[in-house]
Design a protein that fits this description.
The protein has about 325 residues and is of the alpha/beta class. It has one domain: 3-Layer(aba) Sandwich (Rossmann fold), CATH 3.40.50. Helix content is about 40%, strand content about 10%. The protein has eleven helices and seven strands. The protein has a five-stranded parallel beta sheet with strand order 1-2-3-7-6, sandwiched between helices. The longest helix has 30 residues. The relative contact order is 0.16.
Length: about 325
């Protein structure tokens, strides 16, 4: 599938933005932790940038995305505002969820971002809602639902995929297969070699793809999106990748150092940089200029977040339904 040069440059910019955001968010988390200011959970997505960017580059603004506990990359890749996300991390009123949600609950309905979920696999049944609504209205919108290896063994995942296939709903389930469910290796928790193999039980396409190759992810998701828009129902994609950081900021690294090093050699950003240079689309100087621009963007987001006010305690009940 042909992708023009300007679009590939934008994909790299988004991958840089995710990586720089995650690195700065981790620094802020540590600073706040040491100051006895707990910010809740924070799950970095370093190493998984190609999945978010490759998938969301196939979508329109009005398509839907349901995220996970490790969802900062999805938010950025779908066009979410980094200032509002940084403010949300710090619990500020200017955050995308007004400081009420934190890292795992990033919403922006105007961008089709339907939020993350702290429940493993919690987004898989929720994705049926916007998918059914789009099908009912005949809008041609699709829904992308991200989830992890561990969620593929949860009951709601199987129920959701069954119903999506039964009703031919326009939903694409994307497993970010990063080899671990927290600290449990996938091989010890998933009964099949590839999560994508589970699609066969529900009569829908199942495809496994190199999740550290942004163009490969883009091509696979583009096919699934076309399948869904044509009214042919769901697809299950498995993007094989690896997170470069521990599960979350309050856990120590327990994985083998050699394993981590091998995957760092397959860094999706470095691989894409090399591809763009070898293709004559960008040179190293242009990439460095782009990195500087992204660094300034993230710095501005931090300043915005730090200078934003905390929510007024009197407004704590705003937005809640009366019982």
């Amino acid at each position: 599938m042909s992708i023009d040069a300007s679009r590939m440059k934008e994909m790299l910019r988004l991958m840089y933005t995710i990586r720089y955001f995650e690195d700065r968010a981790c620094e802020l988390y540590t600073e706040n932790w040491e100051a006895d200011n707990f910010l809740g959970a924070l799950h970095p997505s370093n190493g998984q940038e190609a999945v978010a960017v490759g998938a969301c580059s196939c979508l329109n603004d009005d398509d839907y995305v349901l995220s996970t506990h490790r969802g900062h990359g999805h938010f950025i890749a779908k066009g979410g505002n980094v200032k509002s996300m940084m403010a949300e991390l710090l619990g500020k009123e200017t955050g995308c969820s007004r400081g009420r949600g934190g890292s795992m609950h990033m919403f922006d309905p105007d961008k089709g971002l339907m939020g993350g979920n702290g429940i493993v696999g919690g987004g898989t049944p929720l994705a049926l809602g916007p998918a059914f609504a789009a099908d009912y209205r005949g809008t041609q919108q699709v829904t992308v639902c991200f989830f992890g290896d561990g969620a593929s063994s949860q009951g709601p995942f199987h129920e959701a995929l069954n119903l999506a296939a039964l009703w031919a709903l326009p939903v694409i389930y994307i497993c970010e297969a990063n080899a671990y469910a927290v600290a449990t290796p996938t091989s010890e928790a998933v009964s099949v070699p590839n999560v994508a193999d589970r699609a066969a039980a529900y009569g829908c396409p199942g495809v496994s793809v190199d999740g550290n190759d942004v163009l490969a992810v883009h091509e696979a998701v583009s096919t699934a999106v076309a399948h869904a828009r044509a009214g042919k129902g769901p697809s299950l994609l498995e993007a094989v990748t690896y997170r470069m950081t521990p599960h979350c900021m309050v856990m120590n690294e327990g994985r083998d150092a050699d394993e981590i090093a091998r995957w760092r050699d397959r860094d999706p950003i470095t691989r894409f940089e090399v591809h763009l240079c070898e293709s004559g689309i960008m040179d190293e100087a242009q990439q460095q200029d782009m990195q500087q621009q992204v660094a300034e963007l993230i710095a501005d987001a931090v300043t915005f977040a730090q200078n934003s006010p905390y929510p007024d305690p009197a407004s704590v009940a705003e937005g809640l339904w009366a019982t």
